[in-house]
Amino acid sequence: MRIAVAEIAQETDSFSPMVADRRDFEAYGLFFGDEILERMRGVGPIGGFLEVAAEQPEAVDLRPIVRAWGSAGGTITAETLDFLTGRLVTGLKQSLPLDAVFLSLHGAAASEKDDDVEGHVLQAVREVVGRDIPVVVALDHHANITRRMVESANLLIGHETQPHDPPATGRKAARLLFRMLRGEIGPTVRWRKIPMITPQDQFLTSAGPMKEWFDLARQMERRSGVLDVSPYPMQPWLDVAEGGWSVIAHTENDAELADSLADEMADKAWVLREQFWRSERVAPAEAVRQAEAADRGLIILSDTGDSVYGGAPGDSTCILRAMLDQHITSLAFVPMVDPEALHSAIAAGVGASITVDLGGKLDHVFSQPVRATGRVAAVSKGFTVDLHDRGVCDLRQTALLDVGSIRIALLDHRSFAINHPVLYTHLGLDVADAKMVVVKTASNFQFFSRWRSGLIRVDSPGTTQSDLTAFRWQRIPRPTYPLDAIADWRNSGATEWN
Ligand SMILES: [Zn+2]
Predict the structure, then answer these.
(1) What residues form DSSP beta bridges with 406?
(2) Which pTM value belongs to this model?
(3) How far apart are CA 350 and CA 317, in angstroms?
(4) What percent of the chain has pLDDT over 90?
């Protein structure tokens, strides 16, 4: 059997001042053809798919086409979307006849050209391969599911956990795909759009309402005739025409069952809607005070408004400013995306004292530069690290600026390693010595779990801030909870296809 494999994945922050172009994808690995098979073993949903493909009793002829992963960032340029879709379409045409297509997509990507990137890509795929072969998609569960996506794909399988386990999602989707190819199952898909958005504060699936909702999906999957139930709590910075939460139920050829599961899941999300808005965020100055006063480290200060994994620039000065204002004396690790300050540090050299305006350069709305004088403690001219299932990460040039007890790691781009201890260890620091660390994520604290003694969710402003009501929403369907009052998700009028 011949199966095409591709990945086009990026998570768009509609409120970001940046745009995403080909360089954003190149930074994380833009691969074509057989290079994908070499590079993606054990990495991401494709890694999971490859594992399952290798276990099949029959020969599997893989046609790897394009792997484009752009992490999270601004809206994708029209040119970049055309380029990526073009490579995929050309590759598919050259691979015909195909028995199936396996795609890894994010689900919450938007472009200047089309604010439903995944619908755009899937429609293009269908136009090449026709209606008769399976097109199976592994998605991030922060996806925005659209009508075009459901119409164009046979299966849309989301992550089961936050933090995510992308290879596991690839394996789950692949197993269903091979069962389809052997004629063992004939999936029926039903979905519901739930007219709501919620902040990231309750996004972890290990506790709270999100656990309750995802646990229900797992319970349903144990029922007879159920193939997969994927909840999609859309990432909350996506301002697009079909935006909002969703759920998809895949059953073994049973539309009635799929409809009832989808309804039950949507009802559950709706009942929990106020709990999804629960928050324990702490104002920045108070958060720094609490971290400084803690008896022992490591206190993780989650810079929720400047989440790089959510698409924010990674140059917010909000928490750094509070540290400087309070003249903290504990050892603090702070990451900062600032190529200008980085190049000043590199030019000055190790041991030099420099005064620089730090951060606040990419996002001018929520953050401003902060002036600081410090000593250049270390410089790295280039560093590449294997982050296992997240792939190889190129940190490129970095420098360490010591400002009192604050260790500022300067980066020239929004590397995935910004929230990883390697950012500090490769500059000669020991995480065990630190009292606090700023992370540019609201959910992915796992890399520091060995040292973690506390977590403070900082209520920082930014393009990934939790106060969603403060954004200027322009495209999302109205009414949407909680921007508008809605009595019942079914009859909101926002999503006429429910
Ligand atoms: Zn996600």
Answers:
(1) 332, 403
(2) 0.92
(3) 23
(4) 94
